[in-house]
Amino acid sequence: MCHRRRLLSIYFQIIGLNNKGFKGCCHGRNLVKFIQYLWRKYVVKILYYDCFSGISGDMNLGAMIDLGVPQGLLVGELKKLKINAYEIAVYRDRRRGIEGIKVDVSVPSRSAGHGHHDAERRAFKDIVGLINESGLSDAVKKKSLEIFTIIAEAEAKVHGHPFDDVHFHEIGAIDSIVDIVGAAVCLNYLKADRILSSPVQVGGGFVKCNHGIFPVPAPATAEILKGIPMKSGSVPFETTTPTGAAILAATVNFFTENIHFIPEKIGYGLGQRDTEIPNVLRVFLGQMDEAAFDEDVETQEACLVECNIDDMNPELYGSVLDALFEKGAYDAFLTPVIMKKSRPAVTVSILCDAEHLKGIEEILWLQTTTLGLRASRVMKKMLRRDVTVRTTKYGDISVKNAYFRGRKIKSKPEYEDCKKLAGEKGVSVKEIYDSLSSEDE
Fold it and tell me: What is the pLDDT of residues 246-270, one digit of tens each?
């Protein structure tokens, strides 16, 4: 409601009316059009995956239907695929008192005693043909193939096969095809402007795969989740499948535990188990201001580690900073401070991701005199950047450009390039910088 009130206020300011004077006014149609325009322009539709109990293909379909995707539309779109007979059962059920939608895909051959690994196998090129020859929309085909490609690449990497030679034990099964194409159909129907997700809970213990018993996450799942924040150990079994992981990898814009939007609908997709932690995928559909989410601003969670040092030889700080960067620090810097008893000191600050936190702490314990650290989670925001090459009379120089709301707002030459050219040409670094400015003129 706060968005609507703000847009109304803008409109009234423009036409010079207040809320009381508007009633019965002839501006009604203009108001409707104006509000619709502003709503489309400034309000972003958000889909947020809360994967506190993992994600699988069937859990995702259940959550999508619970959010409002018509069951008839989903079934009708899936019929456009030329695959063998299967049945979809959609029904309401509960997990630990939470009601949601359970989706079961059954294949007749399995009821006759065939296991999952005996289901019809397909090579990746067969799946590409199956989707491209269907009557699905181009958008659904594209997203479906993106998800399948992610799984194919993971399978090829894990098993050491060339990409084109991969034959699937899992995604070639009919229910997996239904899960993946169904996910693309549902996302196309919801048409979210941004898709976000929490870190992904993968579970624990061991899982039986076609090639043996492996620790959770399964090899393909682990490969797909590279670069994606994940958690483990909430339950002693697998909670995230390769299909679920690939859906996130192909669709999510960024991963965060901080929810800065207004939820409007919540869908619950139920898993197979009824455990102490509900085996449920929760998905939010909501809205946020466009200003709060800009494609040119990347948001990333990080850890800030700091310590105050007042008794270390200052010659050592250089080697400490070098070691911190080698351990994976995003940034490391020194700040002069005055501590208790008016002691001059230095605050060593390091930004890193959670994966490298232990290594960063180890450097501080072993290579500095500190006896204590403090660590906290922070949110990093970075402008979208690219690097272009500028040609000057002295040679080529790399220039870093930064963008905000679709516009380049600042540029900066790479110092090391300028320093190298200055040494080669026998001029000062300032002259190299000036040559760039003269080129602009």
Answer: 999 999 988 888 777 889 999 999 9
Quote the CA–CA distance of 195 and 187 in Å, as a whole number: 10
Return the closest-CA partner of residue 154 out of 63, 226, 48: 226
Tokens of 22: 């508007």
pLDDT at position 188, please? Answer: 97
CATH class of 298-382: alpha beta
- Label the pairing between strands 331-338 and 344-352: antiparallel
pTM of the entire predicted model: 0.66
Q: What is the DSSP string of 181-200?
A: HHHHHHHHHH--SEEEEPPE
Both tokens assigned to 81: 């695929």
Q: Are 231 and 199 in contact (CB under 8 A)?
A: yes
- DSSP letters, 74-109, are HHHHHTTS-----EEEEEEEEETTEEEEEEEEE-HH
CA distance 151 to 221: 9
Alpha helices in 197-316 (DSSP H): 219-224, 242-251
CB-based contacts of 26: which residues, under 8 Å, 6+ apart? none
CA nearest neighbour of 184 among 85, 78, 276: 78
Task: Provide CATH 3.30.70.1380 ranges for the chain.
Answer: 298-382
Q: Which residues contact 89 (CB under 8 A, 6 or more apart)?
A: 102, 103, 104, 105, 106
| Structure tokens given for 163 | 């990409």
